[in-house]
Automatic annotation (TrEMBL):
It catalyses: Hydrolyzes the link between N-acetylmuramoyl residues and L-amino acid residues in certain cell-wall glycopeptides. Its EC number is 3.5.1.28. SMART domains: Ami_2. The lineage of its organism: Bacteria, Bacillati, Actinomycetota, Actinomycetes, Kitasatosporales. It comes from Streptomyces regalis. Residues 72-201 form the N-acetylmuramoyl-L-alanine amidase domain. InterPro entries: Amidase/PGRP_sf, Amidase_domain, NAMLAA_amidase_2. Keywords: Cell wall biogenesis/degradation, Hydrolase. This is N-acetylmuramoyl-L-alanine amidase. One of its GO terms (molecular function) is N-acetylmuramoyl-L-alanine amidase activity.
Length: 221
């Protein structure tokens, strides 16, 4: 009984102290959150936003085709959200069908890039903006999404031209944002927490792809 009473008294004392510390921490935490939120929103002040030009691309070999603005969110990355990841997708359809759905405001999703079977690269969302491609808000805010034309159960869709063009694109993204070229930072959609997607699928050759990305990353720009 004595031990139990001492324990109760100790809990009460700790509780009072914790309340005081907790209140202070909550105030400090709120201030930090407010500061971080202001840092993320400052660019929305008129005259502060980074210059944007219609049709401008972030990757020189890409062609611009705009996605519906309902499928992405305006941002100022990496100043407001750091970019530390590339997420690999497969479209489960043709290139044309992927472009069409990304331009559909009812679709609710789109990736930054689509790589066609012949290696052609289309950019549909600027890298500084947040694309709705991963099905996870945190991963959307910190990543670039790359779609690849084809179906996960058709290995013949994953052509040499596609692998090579995509690897060059990923290498340039990694260089631009100082992203490590490894499988912790270059992942498949299936690896995003909470997703119900399986792409890029079992036929996506990760060993081959990562070798190509590393080679492109170390090659002269």
């Amino acid at each position: 009984m004595g031990q139990r009473k001492a324990s109760k008294d100790g809990d009460r004392k700790v509780g009072r102290r914790a309340l005081l510390i907790g209140g202070t921490a909550a105030a400090v935490g709120s201030a930090v959150l407010a500061r971080d939120e202001l840092a993320r929103l400052w660019w929305r002040v008129p005259g502060v936003e980074k210059p944007r030009k219609e049709g401008e691309v972030d990757y020189a070999d890409a062609r611009w085709v705009a996605a519906s603005d309902a499928n992405w969110r305006r941002a100022d990355r990496p100043d407001d959200y750091g970019i530390d990841m590339v997420i690999i997708h497969v479209t489960q359809g043709s290139f044309d069908s992927a472009v069409k759905v990304f331009q559909d405001p009812e679709h609710g999703a789109a990736a930054h890039y689509i790589v066609r079977k012949d290696g052609h690269v289309t950019q549909m969302i600027r890298e500084l903006d947040v694309a709705y491609h991963a099905g996870n808000r945190d991963y959307n805010e910190r990543s670039i999404g790359i779609e690849h034309e084809g179906f996960v159960d058709r290995p013949q869709d994953l052509t040499d031209e596609m692998y090579e063009a995509s690897a060059r694109l990923t290498a340039r993204i990694c260089a631009r944002y100082d992203i490590p070229v490894d499988r912790e930072h270059i992942i498949g959609h299936v690896e995003v927490p909470g997703t119900d997607h399986t792409d890029p699928g079992e036929h996506w050759d990760w060993d081959r792809y990562m070798k190509l990305v590393r080679a492109a990353h170390t090659a002269p720009a």
